[in-house]
Design goal:
alpha/beta; Double Stranded RNA Binding Domain; eight-stranded parallel β-barrel; elongated; binds zinc ion
């Protein structure tokens, strides 16, 4: 039986450039609970006002099955447990489970901690025992365990033994520097599990916590499971400092689909892809299209040959059925792809195309023409869906533009403000709205929302998450062609749209209109 321990909110938030609010953290907790994670580590209850507020709020949460865990250090050197503020805060916080870090590498104890090996054992023992006595379920994170085991295996094991004697219920072997290789992790975990089995009293869980510095975090974690570890730690999307942690989603998918462990069950496994998107959006990080299992391109095939083979035999070029993890067999429509690609892409977008109809040939020709003019539908699924619907005589249209105007003003204080005025018609009524923003797209977005909000209040759920501009060098003459790609989400799904023009504002407007129209289409239909 494998237990999942998520550390997205503690180790994952260490990713450069990320800062989560208390509300962000609480929303992620709810999402991970829905996914079926057993432990959700929330942060250090003593470290800053935000984490203190989080643990206060977390105490009031009603979770289906997950337990919130707090993280901290074992006892500091030279003092007793009650003198250690961090330890007292852990004992007092709302979390039923506490994970404390103890050093397991003799060199680290002597050189980094600057104390004796005996004092380190006392710190582990008294820290764990104090928290157990306060009623917590206590896990020991054995820091640098693998380097420690290579340096002095007897001491590394003694640290674990000490924690067990003090009442720890899980020993988490941490591959802190992220450089170990799978065969090493297997061998050391195996020896450790065997050594623990030899101790008469030990009824203790062995966990694994890996970082991805050598690109082996998921592989290392899977090897640890093969060697007997039963608690798996990781972060959603592999977020974490430096190159990140083990990607918990890939771990889950591999454990469940490749190694035969029942981790979430088939139904909740389909939540992996939406969870990846949700956490990426909450982290304000562009989702990685090429992420294993859950990336938008994880099952994308560009070649017409692959696509037509896949249409006949789903396993032809995919390692799993993408729907098992809530993903889709995105078939990339490009200049290379043939008719089979378009048919299966359309089916995925909910549009039925007959395989050898003349209409399909005409659509394909039109798409190729637009690609030659600068459009790209590889990430702009939503624009493709709208184009197909229009060409098939089922256009989605919720408002009609009369005109827009954008003014950019540079002010004395150095700030540039942009103002957009939009005139449009909804259901025969005319609306005029003005929006301000930090750039033309932002200002147009604000004005458009104001103009149509009365008819479509659900527009509030849509959020533009990414905006990319590319000047295409294939253009002829003096005017360069600009392609704008916009990514939009509603908290549940994300979609891409594209606009192309010699004018960047017009290209942006076209991509924006598609983004909003598709959002309304998905919501209304
Ligand atoms: Zn870590």
């Amino acid at each position: 039986m494998i237990t999942l321990y998520d550390t997205t909110l503690r180790d994952g938030e260490q990713r450069e450039g990320v800062s989560l609010s208390v509300e962000d953290k609480l929303r992620i907790v709810a999402r991970l609970d829905m996914l079926g994670v057993t432990y959700i580590e929330g942060g250090f209850p003593a470290s800053n006002p935000k984490d203190i507020a989080f643990f206060e709020a977390a105490g009031d949460l009603t979770l289906k099955q997950a337990k919130v865990a707090a993280f901290g250090m074992t006892l500091r050197k030279g003092i007793t447990a009650v003198e250690d503020e961090g330890l007292v805060a852990l004992a007092d916080c709302s979390a039923p489970t506490v994970t404390v870090v103890g050093k397991a590498w003799d060199k680290q104890v002597e050189l980094a901690l600057e104390t004796t090996l005996e004092e380190n054992l006392r710190m582990v023992y008294e820290g764990v025992a104090y928290l157990v006595a306060s009623g917590k379920e206590v896990f020991l994170d054995a820091e640098h365990y693998f380097d420690g085991y290579k340096s002095n295996s007897a001491y590394a094991l003694e640290v674990l033994h000490t924690a067990v004697n003090a009442g720890a219920s899980a020993l988490v072997l941490c591959e802190t520097n992220g450089g170990a290789l799978p065969h090493e992790v297997y061998a050391i975990t195996r020896s450790t599990v065997e050594a623990l089995a030899d101790w008469s009293s030990a009824q203790v869980t062995v966990g694994i916590h890996c970082h991805n510095d050598g690109g082996c975090a998921v592989a290392n974690s899977l090897e640890a499971v093969r060697a007997g570890a039963t608690q798996v730690q990781g972060t959603v999307n592999g977020y974490g400092e430096r190159v990140g942690n083990a990607d918990l989603l890939a771990l889950i998918a591999n454990l469940e689909l490749k190694m035969g462990h029942e981790v979430l069950g088939a139904e909740r496994l389909q939540l992996l892809t939406p969870t990846a998107l949700f956490v990426a959006e909450t982290f304000n990080v562009t989702p990685d299209a090429h992420q294993p299992f859950v990336g938008q391109s994880a099952f994308a095939h560009k070649g017409g040959l692959h696509a037509s083979a896949l249409a006949r035999f789903a396993g032809a070029y995919n390692h799993i059925d993408p729907t098992a993890v809530g993903n889709f067999a995105h078939v990339v429509v490009s200049e290379l792809a043939g008719r089979a690609s378009l048919v299966s892409k359309a089916a995925q977008l909910g549009i039925d195309l007959p395989a050898d109809d003349a209409i399909t040939a005409k659509l394909l020709a039109d798409i190729k023409e637009r690609e030659a003019a600068g459009y790209s539908y590889e990430v702009a699924d939503a624009s493709l869906a709208l184009l197909l619907r229009t060409e098939l005589g089922q256009p989605a249209s919720y408002f009609k533009l009369e005109s827009f105007r954008v003014i950019a003003e540079k002010r004395e204080d150095g700030r540039v403000m942009t103002e957009a005025t939009i005139k449009l018609h909804v259901n025969g009524e005319r609306f005029v709205a003005t929006g301000e923003g930090n750039g033309p797209v932002n200002a147009l977005d604000v004005a458009l929302r104001l103009a149509i909000k009365r008819f479509y209040p659900q527009i509030d759920l849509l959020e533009l998450t990414d905006y990319k501009v590319r000047v295409l060098d294939e253009s002829v003459g003096t005017d360069a062609i600009t392609r704008v790609l916009i990514e939009t989400g509603n908290g549940e799904a994300a979609w891409g749209t594209v606009g192309v023009s010699e004018n960047v504002i017009e290209a942006s407007w076209d991509a924006l209109v598609d983004a909003v129209t598709y959002g309304l289409l998905v919501d209304i239909s």
